């Protein structure tokens, strides 16, 4: 699988682009409050996230599955507990954790506002990586000298990092097409409505496979290195509710994640999903 996703094994990927709504949407007016964390007493932890295959999604039987679901389930098992998962709209996920109606939101970026109600572990759960996709094999310069020639597809509400955000203040592109979903952006790309699409690596690879586009949609390469042209990367975590979870448990969860990196459990989970993850640049 080449240089795989985990920081702990010196590859970029600790499970699968850009911290989209996952980093940017605040829960206005919510705070940690003064509630004392409840003892778990054998109760399963209640985890929430949004539908985002292959990281977390609902299968045909109505079960929540995915790379991060399996990873978190194993980490929680190593702490001596069980966990239940529910998929909801992201804004509702954050509100439930902030108000103490759920134990944790995962695939969450770290922000100052979220830290008022959330406890974060130290070990990165996932580095989201955003790269360019195109209809045919192509290479672009790292500094996007070709920007004025490109029709670029992006997702509504997503944040693509400081560098790209500056570009969007005065877009140098030939055109900018904003859509709500990855499948919609892939359809625009296939129909020659856009030249490139900036996609979250693992979810986009998942939909490329699901839509049967493996021979039609390709990751754009850097002219300089031949490696994927990365727009940004962002670490994400489980944000545990301060109202429900004791800091000592967060420490135990963190240690469990570290042990899973050390024994390559996450590599095995990623391998089970047969994701064709490319080698990524060491530095961005």
Describe this structure in words.
The protein folds into two domains: 7-29 and 40-127 and 235-272, Periplasmic binding protein-like II (D-Maltodextrin-Binding Protein, domain 2); 129-231, Periplasmic binding protein-like II (D-Maltodextrin-Binding Protein, domain 2), CATH 3.40.190.10. Helix 2 crosses helix 7 (247-262). The chain has 284 residues and is α/β, with parallel strands linked by helices. Strands 1, 4, 5, 6, 7, 9, 10, 11, 12 and 14 form a ten-stranded mixed β-sheet that branches. The chain has a two-stranded antiparallel sheet with strand order 2-3. The protein has helices at 20-24, 67-78, 90-98, 161-169, 182-190, 201-210, 247-262, 265-272; strands at 45-49, 57-58, 64-65, 83-87, 104-108, 118-120, 126-134, 139-140, 151-155, 175-179, 196-200, 218-219, 221-222, 230-241.
Topology:
Elements lengths: L19 H5 L20 E5 L7 E2 L5 E2 L1 H12 L4 E5 L2 H9 L5 E5 L9 E3 L5 E9 L4 E2 L10 E5 L5 H9 L5 E5 L2 H9 L5 E5 H10 L7 E2 L1 E2 L7 E12 L5 H16 L2 H8 L12
Parallel strand pairs: 1-4, 1-5, 8-13, 9-10, 9-11
Antiparallel strand pairs: 2-3, 5-14, 6-14, 7-11, 7-12, 7-14
Brief characterization of the structure:
Helix content is 27%, strand content 23%.
Key structural traits:
D-Maltodextrin-Binding Protein, domain 2; two-stranded antiparallel ribbon; 10-stranded mixed beta sheet; alpha/beta; 2 domains; elongated; 284 residues; disordered N terminus
């Amino acid at each position: 699988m080449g240089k795989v996703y985990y920081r702990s094994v010196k590859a970029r990927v600790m499970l699968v682009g850009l911290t989209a709504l996952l980093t940017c949407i605040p829960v206005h007016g919510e705070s940690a409050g003064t509630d004392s964390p409840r003892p778990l007493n054998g109760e399963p932890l209640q985890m929430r996230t949004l539908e985002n295959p292959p990281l977390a999604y609902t299968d045909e039987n109505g079960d929540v599955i995915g790379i991060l679901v399996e990873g978190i389930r194993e980490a929680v098992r190593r702490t001596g507990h069980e966990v239940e998962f529910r998929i909801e709209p992201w804004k509702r996920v954050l509100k439930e954790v902030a108000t103490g109606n759920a134990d944790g939101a995962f695939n969450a970026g770290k922000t100052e506002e979220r830290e008022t109600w959330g406890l974060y572990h130290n070990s990165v759960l996932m580095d989201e990586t955003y790269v360019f996709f195109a209809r045919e094999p192509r290479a672009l310069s790292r500094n996007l000298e070709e920007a004025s020639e490109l029709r670029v597809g992006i997702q509504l509400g997503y944040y693509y990092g400081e560098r790209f955000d500056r570009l969007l203040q005065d877009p140098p592109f030939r055109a900018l097409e904003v859509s709500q979903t990855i499948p919609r952006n892939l359809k625009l790309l296939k129909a020659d409505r856009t030249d490139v699409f900036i996609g979250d690596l693992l979810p986009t690879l998942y939909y490329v496979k699901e839509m049967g586009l493996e021979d039609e949609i390709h990751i754009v390469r850097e002219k300089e290195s031949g490696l994927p042209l990365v727009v940004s990367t962002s670490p994400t975590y489980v944000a545990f509710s301060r109202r429900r979870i004791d800091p000592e448990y967060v420490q135990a969860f963190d240690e469990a994640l570290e042990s899973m990196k050390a024994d390559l459990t996450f590599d095995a989970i990623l391998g089970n999903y047969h994701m064709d993850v490319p080698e990524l640049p060491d530095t961005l």
